[in-house]
Amino acid sequence: MSLDIWMRENPLTYVWIGSYGVAFLIFAIEIAMVMHKRKITLQQVRLMREAEESEGI
Amino acid sequence: MKKLSLFALLVLVVRRDLVLAMRRRADVLTTLFFFVMVVSLFPLGVGPEMDMLRKMAPGVLWVAALLASMLSLGRLFSADYLDGTLEQMLLAPQSLSVLVLGKMASHWMVSGLPLVLMTPVLGLQFDMTVEGIGVLMLGLLLGTPILSMVGAIGAALTLGLRGGGVLLSLLVLPLCIPVLIFGTGAVQAVTSGLNVSAHLSLMGALLVLALAFTPWVTAQALRISME
Amino acid sequence: MAINWFKYSAPTTFYGLAGKLIPWFAISSVILCAIALYIGFAVAPMDATQGQFYRIIFIHVPTSIISMFLYLVMAGYAALGLIFNTRLSSMMASAVAPTGALFAFISLWTGALWGKPMWGAWWVWDARLTSELILLFLYLGFIALHASIDDPRRADRAAALLAIVGSVNVPIIYFSVKWWNTLHQGSTIKYSGTSMHIAMQQAMFTMLVACWLYAIAVTLMRVRSIILERERHTKWIAQLAEVK
Asked: Could you tell me the residue range of the domain that residue B17 belongs to?
C-alpha cells in the first residue's frame, strides 16, 4: 500500500526508475553479454589456430 | 511385395501401434491415472465449495488433459527411434505423412480417447450438469486429436534430445492455447444458456486445419531430426 | 546500378560489412533515443487524465511493436534458411531471437508498471498482454530448442520449423485470446482513446526508430560472433586481423 502512495507522490521517479531505468539496464546487460561473447569467441578461435600451427610444425 | 493403398497403410500402422501399446498396458494406464489424479487434487487445493468447483471444472479438466497428453507424447516416436524402425519408415517408398498420421491416430486412441471416456465420472465429482458434461466430452473428442497432432511436431523436433520431455512441453503448450480456450468456452456457454455451436465449429475448423498440415510438418521434422 | 546483393549474403563478406555498419547503427540509435527522451519528458505536455504516468508509453509501445516485428523477421530468416539452405539466414535467425525475447520482456514489464497506476493492478488478462506473454513463450521455445541440439545444422533446421509453425499460430492465438477476453470481461479495459498530442506521436515514433536501430546493431554484433564460431575452421577467418 505504501508503494501506492509513494507512486502517486513521485510519478516521474516511478516512471524513470521503474520503466526507463529497467529497460536501459536490460539493454546495457545485453550489450555487455554480446561484447563478452565476442571476446570469448575470438579467444577460442585464436587458441584453436595456435594449436593447429604447433601441430603443423 | 504387393502395393498397399494409402488407407490400408494407415490401418496397418494404427493396428501395429495399438498392439504395441496393449503389450505395454502400464504406460497407457499411467497416463489415465495421472489425469484422474491431477483433476482430483484440485478440490483439495482450492477448497470444497461446490459453486466454485462447478465453475472451474471445464478449465481443470482441460488443463489436466493437456498435461496428460504432453506426458505421453515423449513415447510417440522414441521407441521406434531407438530400435531403428523409424529409420526404415523414412526409407519406405510409402508416404511418410500417412505413416505419421497413423501414429498420431493410434496415439490419440491410446492417450486421448480414454480421457474422454473418463470425463463423465470426473465431471460428476465437480457437480457438473449433464449438458455441461456432454459438451465437455464433445469438445474433448474434437480437441484431444489436435493435441496429439500438434504435439507430434514437438515430439519429432525433440527426438533423442536430453531433457526432451520438458522441452517438448515448453514448445507445444503455447501452441495449444486456442484449443483450451474453445474447449472451455463451449462448456461455459452451455452452462450460461448460450449457443455452443460457435465454439465447437471453431474447434472443428482447427481440427481440419491440423489434419491437413500437421502430418506433413511432422514428417519434415522427422527428416530434420534423423539426418 | 548493378550491385551484386548476393555478394553480401555470404558470411565472408557480410562479416566485414556488419563490422563497418554496427557503429553507425549504434550511434544513431543513441542520438535518436536522447531526442525521444527530450521530446517525451520536456516537450510533451502532461496528460489530463493519466498524469505523468502516461510517459511510460514512449518506451512501452515501441518495444511491443519491435518484439512482434522481430518474431516475423526471425521466422522469415528461418524460412529462408530452411528453404534455400543459406547459412547466413539461419545464423541471423538465431541472432535475432534473444533480442526479440528481451524486447517482449521489456514490453511486459513496462506494461505492468503502466497498468498499476492506471488500472490498479500489475497484471490484467487483457488480450494484448496475454498475447505478448505467449509471444515471449514462443521466443523462449525457439531459444531452448536451438540450445539443446548440439549439431548446429540440425539445430538451425529444427528451430526454423518451430518458428514457422509458431508464426502460423500467432494469428490464431491472438484472435482466440481476444475472443476469450471479450467473453469473460464485462468491463473491457480500453486504452484511453483521446487524440494524441503531436509531441507524443513524435516522441513515440523517434523511440521506435531508436529501438529498431538498437535491435539491428545488437543482432549484427551477435551474428558476427556466431559467424566466427561456425566458420572457425575456414581460411578467411585465419586471415582476419583480429584473430592474428
From this structure: 6-225
